[in-house]
Design a protein that fits this description.
The protein is of the alpha+beta class. It has three domains: about 5-80, no CATH class; about 105-215, Glutaredoxin (3-Layer(aba) Sandwich); about 230-394, Glutathione S-transferase Yfyf (Class Pi), Chain A, domain 2. The chain has 14 helices and seven strands. It has helices at about 5, 40-50, 55-80, 115-125, 175-180, 205-215, 235-250, 250-255, 260-280, 295-315, 325-335, 345-355, 375-380, 390-394; strands at about 10, 30, 105-110, 135-140, 145, 190-195, 200-205. The strands form two sheets. A five-stranded mixed β-sheet has the order 5-4-3-6-7. Strands 1-2 form a two-stranded antiparallel ribbon. A hairpin with a 4-residue loop joins strand 6 (about 190-195) and strand 7. Helix 7 packs parallel to helix 10 (about 295-315). The longest helix is centred in the N-terminal third of the chain and has 23 residues, at about 55-80. It is globular, with a radius of gyration of 25 Å. The model is unreliable at about 1-35 and about 150-155 (pLDDT under 50). InterPro entries: Glutathione-S-Trfase_C-like (IPR010987), Glutathione-S-Trfase_C_sf (IPR036282), Glutathione_S-Trfase (IPR040079), Glutathione_S-Trfase_N (IPR004045), GST_Omega-like_C (IPR047047), GST_Omega/GSH (IPR016639), Thioredoxin-like_sf (IPR036249). GO terms for molecular function: glutathione transferase activity. It comes from Clitoria ternatea. This is GST C-terminal domain-containing protein.
Length: about 400
C-alpha cells in the first residue's frame, strides 16, 4: 500500500441541501495496511458510503451471492462452454493432422496441460528432442498462453520449465497462431505443432501429434525402434481410448467445469466407475494392453499424475484420491520411472496453472500444499509391477 493510503483518509462531502457540518465518523473511509482491515472492511466502508450504514447481513449475503453467481456463469461460459444441461462441451480442435514432410517442425506446449504433456512424453521417449525443438508457454492471468522466463523450476527428474518462443520470438501463443497465412482469430491452444518452413499450423490435436511422433519421424528419431502403437494392438488401443478419453481425460474436466448439479453428478459417476474398472484391470495387467507400454497408457498417465495435485480438490473429483487405488497409483509410478518421463513433469507449474489461473474455480488464487503422495521421492518408490509381465508369470 502506498504511503498516501497509509496516512490519509478520504472524507465524503455533505449533501448540498443540508446545513454545512463537520463530517462524522460514519462518512469516513479509513484505509489501513493492517491485515485485519482487509476486503471485509473495504466492503463495509463501501456500503456505508452508499447507504450511510451497513447492509443487513442477510441482504448483503443475498446481494453478493446473486452478483457472484451471475459473474461466475459469465466467466464459465468463456472458460468452459456448456450444453443445455450444464455439462462441459469441449470445443473440437481446429487443426487436424493432414501430413507433412517438413524438416522445420516446432512444438508449442504448456506444462499444466495434460494434452500437451502427452506430446512431451512421446517426443522424449522417441528421442525427438533434436528434431522437434519445443517452446514452453505459461498461462497468463487472463488465461492466455505467454512466453517468459520463469525461475524456480519445481520438477521431477531433470525438469523442464517455461521459457521464450525460440521459433518465432512472439510474446504470446496467440501471436504465433496469428502468423499463419490468412491469420487466425480462434482459440489458441496447446499443444500446437508449427511448421517454420511454411509458417503455418500443422496440428493442434494432441492425439494426432503423438501418433505422428510415434511413427512419422522415425528417420530423425534417436529411438526409432520404439513403437507405442504396434499393429497387433491398435484395436485394443482404440478400444481403451474410447473408454478413457470421455470418462477420465475429459471426465475430470466434465466434473470441474460442470455448471449444474445434474451434469456434475453424471460426470463424477462416469469418472469413478471407470477408475474402478481400471483399478481392477491393472491388478492383473502391467499396462492397459498387456506387457507393452502404448500411447493409451501415456494418455491415461497425464491425467493420473495430476489427479491428487489438482483434480481431486479443484475439480471436485473427491470420491477417492489416486493414492487410494493401489494398482492405479503403482501403475502411475511405473510409468513415471521410465527414463525421461519424470523430466517432463513440472509439479509446480501444474499446480500454479490450475490453482492460480482458473479464477472462476479458485477466486482467491491460493495454491494448496502439494500432496505427499505426489512428491518426486514417493513416485520413485518401488512399484512392483514387473511381476505382472507375462514373462514373470510363466
Amino acid at each position: 500500500m502506498s504511503s498516501f493510503a497509509s496516512h490519509h483518509r478520504l472524507v465524503i462531502p455533505p449533501p448540498t441541501n443540508f446545513r454545512h457540518r463537520r463530517p462524522t465518523g460514519r462518512h469516513v473511509i479509513r484505509m489501513s495496511s493492517s491485515s485485519d482491515n482487509n476486503s471485509s472492511a473495504l466492503l463495509n466502508s463501501v456500503t456505508k458510503l452508499l447507504w450511510g450504514k451497513g447492509l443487513p447481513p442477510g441482504l448483503l449475503v443475498a446481494t453478493v451471492r446473486t452478483a457472484w453467481n451471475a459473474a461466475w456463469r459469465l466467466m464459465m461460459s468463456q472458460l468452459a462452454p456448456s450444453d443445455s444441461s450444464g455439462g462441459y462441451s469441449r470445443p473440437a480442435s481446429k487443426f487436424r493432422f493432414s501430413g507433412t514432410d517438413s524438416s522445420g517442425l516446432h512444438l508449442y506446449v504448456g506444462l499444466p496441460c495434460p494434452w500437451a504433456h502427452r506430446t512431451l512424453i512421446v517426443r522424449a521417449l522417441k528421442g525427438l528432442e533434436g528434431a522437434v525443438p519445443v517452446s514452453v508457454a505459461s498461462p497468463g492471468l487472463d488465461g492466455s498462453w505467454e512466453f517468459k522466463r520463469v525461475g524456480g523450476v519445481d520438477a521431477g527428474g531433470d525438469g523442464i520449465g517455461p521459457g521464450l518462443d525460440t521459433a518465432n520470438g512472439c510474446k504470446t501463443l496467440k501471436e504465433v497462431y496469428g502468423l499463419r497465412r490468412g491469420g487466425y482469430d480462434g482459440r489458441s491452444t496447446v499443444p500446437m505443432l508449427w511448421d517454420k518452413d511454411s509458417n503455418d499450423v500443422v496440428c493442434n490435436e494432441s492425439y494426432d501429434i503423438i501418433q505422428f511422433f510415434n511413427s512419422g519421424l522415425n528417420g530423425v528419431a534417436q529411438n526409432p525402434g520404439l513403437d507405442l502403437s504396434p499393429s497387433q494392438l491398435k484395436g485394443k488401443i482404440e478400444e481403451w481410448y474410447e473408454v478413457i478419453y470421455p470418462n477420465v481425460n475429459n471426465g475430470v474436466y466434465r466434473c470441474g467445469f460442470a455448471q449444474s448439479q445434474e451434469a456434475y453428478d453424471r460426470a463424477v459417476d462416469d469418472l469413478f466407475c471407470t477408475l474402478d474398472k481400471l483399478e481392477d484391470h491393472l491388478g492383473s495387467s502391467r499396462y492397459l494392453c498387456g506387457d507393452t507400454l502404448t500411447l493409451v497408457d501415456i494418455c491415461l498417465f497425464t491425467t493420473l499424475i495430476r489427479f491428487d495435485l489438482a483434480y481431486n480438490v479443484l475439480f471436485k473429483c473427491t470420491k477417492k484420491k489416486l493414492c487410494e487405488y493401489p494398482n492405479l497409483h503403482a501403475y502411475t509410478r511405473d510409468i513415471y520411472q521410465i527414463p525421461k518421463v519424470a523430466g517432463t513433469c513440472n509439479f509446480g507449474e501444474i499446480m500454479d496453472g490450475y490453482y492460480k489461473i482458473l479464477f472462476p474455480l479458485n477466486p482467491g488464487g491460493i495454491r494448496p500444499a502439494m500432496p505427499s503422495t505426489s512428491e518426486h521421492e514417493i513416485l520413485c518408490m518401488p512399484h512392483g509391477r514387473e511381476s505382472l509381465s507375462s514373462v514373470f508369470l510363466k
